[in-house]
Specification:
The protein has about 80 residues and is mainly alpha-helical. It has one domain (about 5-70). Helices cover about 65% and strands about 0% of the residues. The protein has 6 helices and no strands. The protein has helices at about 5-15, 20-25, 30-40, 45-50, 55-70, 75-80. It is globular. The N and C termini lie far apart (about 50 Å).
Amino acid sequence: MKRVTRDDIARAVGPVDDVSIAEIIGTGATVDELTEAQAWIVNDEPLVNAGKPLPSGRVGALIQILTELEPNEDDADEDGPAPG
């Protein structure tokens, strides 16, 4: 299995800071595990319904890192309402 590289991360996640890239690479994850983590983040219900166990190990670590990269609703609220 091919371990994830900086280029793999850029293709999968888009622009991301060097610290986050290092954290992702530091998990020792493969490209397949990165893809699986993204699938869980996008929509975990079909995976649970298909009988997939909840993610742990490297996939679980990737999910934690990737969710921290996503802007949350609180961040958007800090900018105030959109000009109308």
